[in-house]
Specification:
The protein is mainly β. It has 2 helices and 10 strands; from the N terminus they run E-E-E-E-E-E-H-E-E-E-H-E. Strands 1, 2, 3, 4, 5, 6, 7, 8, 9 and 10 form a 10-stranded mixed β-sheet that branches. The chain is globular. It comes from Alkalimarinus alittae.
Length: 164
Amino acid sequence: MPNIDASLSLEVNIQHQTLTLLKYAKPWLCYRVSTALNGAGEMSSSGCTPRGHHIVRAKIGQQKPINSVFVARRPTGEIYSGTLAKQYPNRDWILSRILWLSGTQPGVNRLGAVDTMRRYIYIHGTPDTEPMGVPLSHGCIRMKNLDIVDLFDRVSVGARVIIV
């Protein structure tokens, strides 16, 4: 079992487009994020950000360079650039780090047609040209690259996440 710092948890606020790192249940650090363009929702293929209680199931990308590109949770070896963006204009860019979420509430965000983990919902980096504070993702929680690297280094696998 990983070493979990039980003093740290995350709260994602869809309405305010923020992610707050809580220490002993008190706000410690706050980041601007971008949640789903389609709003909040738990159903598979909805393109919505799932609500409720989650945990960080996996951390992916440790030690990778900032702006590293991931496809299907695997580093491609590419480093994001404007040239690469023009070459692949329709890619949903997942950059730098991934915190893969898993729901903890059966029937709400775990198992069946509402399973956060099987929906591949992450907290991840996105091109720094993408606006924060505006819902634009396909369901994930997007962050600026320096912010996701900072957050990634602070939280452990098993960290509690609530999305409201």
